[in-house]
Amino acid sequence: MAVGTLSLFYPVFLPMSAAAVAFAGHRALQVDWRTALTHFFTGPGRTSRILLALFLALNWKSLPLGWTVRIFHSFIYHLLRRPKTLPQRALFHYSITASRTSLLETDYNIHKSNSTYFADLDVSRSHLVSHLLGPGMPIIARNARYQRVRDKEGRLVTGSFGIGLGAVFCSFRRELGPLQGYEMWSRILAWDRKWLYIVTHFVPKGKVRPARWDGRRMGPTRGRVQRADGAGAGGDKVEEEDFSKYVAATAISKYVFKLGRFTVHPALVIEAAGLLPERPGEGWCGGETGTGTPEDLGELDEEGEWDWKRVEAERRKGLEYAEHFAALDATNSLFDGGADGAIGKFPLG
């Protein structure tokens, strides 16, 4: 999701997409589908057409514009289907996106190519951010009206709203085979004064399911995570399990929010979406770190409401991992332009 994408989505891409769908529907109604389908499946060259159609169906996500369709589907889906309100605990909950390894994603080792994980991450993050922060982004984008973002001098910030991807790290643990189904479990890991960190786990489809969906109870295992093979059914408590054994890969990404060239504090976007409880003192953007004054959180009630202490404790826990990832930005300084030479320049890169 590049800076400026969302600022163009509603006034430009959404009307264009609607017009394209309307035109395609108008043209489709003029086709004699019975004759067309009969010719397709029984006419000369049917075997080649059927095999080609099967190939395209199995590889649609890897075809030209496939990525674009997946990204804009996430925007439109949550624009139309998102609940009006989400519970406070949803801030750190997983967004689960299902997919399948296409044949065109398979490398010479006969498993999903490492490079293709990053396109999937784009889609998974788009679902998460659109669902969680969707209501907050228009508020920040219309800052002249809502007056949420000001610079250090207290002046109101203006400009087009956008989201920029700063970096992605991915750790591979086990392979995903051709045509194998898998799920991307993405959630907010932490944030600081500039970056929103998102963690994504790639899990084979059907291995794990959440104990509940936000706003809907899921039976006797409410509040717990369970395996999808039925463990814990019948009212029994689910035993604690090392769910990391199901993870095929884990990625961390960081997003930055922009109004023009001005960097918007992630807490302002989260707060505008109604997912941050009120915090005493200097709030979520105060203190030396710009993320609130570092009070002792004391003993937390794990079963209680998601007050500011529980949110801050979860943010700090995720930040312990995110800070190591952020430290890698300094490796840019290692580039010396080949001051001591290079081994060569090669074609077909």
From TrEMBL:
Origin: domain of life: Eukaryota
Residue ranges crossing the lipid bilayer per the database entry: 48-72
The keyword Membrane is assigned to this record: yes
Region (Disordered): 213-236
Pfam short name (any one): 4HBT_2
Keyword Membrane attributed: yes
Keywords: Membrane, Transmembrane, Transmembrane helix
Family, per entry: Belongs to the lcsJ thioesterase family.
Name assigned to this protein: Capsule polysaccharide biosynthesis protein
Species of the source: Thermothielavioides terrestris (strain ATCC 38088 / NRRL 8126) (Thielavia terrestris)
